[in-house]
Amino acid sequence: xxxxxxxxxxxxxxxxxxxxxxxxxxxxxxxxxxxxxxxxxxxxxxxxxxxxxxxxxxxxxxxxxxxxxxxxxxxxxxxxxxxxxxxx
Length: 88
Known about the structure:
This protein has helices at about 15, 25-35, 40-55, 70-85. It has about 90 residues and is an all-alpha fold. It has one domain (about 15-85).
């Protein structure tokens, strides 16, 4: 498994690659991605944590906002699921 410098698995396993987001999650993630802000709000961090736990099959944990690399890693993984969901 490929991991980045903070130990975040940046690859999705085969089962995760076949998971499609729900319509509500697609809508919420599309809205998040369309944001022009360079800052992430508390609600957005909670959305990231919710979707990460749901689609990566992990325990729900809201990450510390001081760890931008971890949050970005989660965003990258959620983006992969999102891209699969809209292309399938």
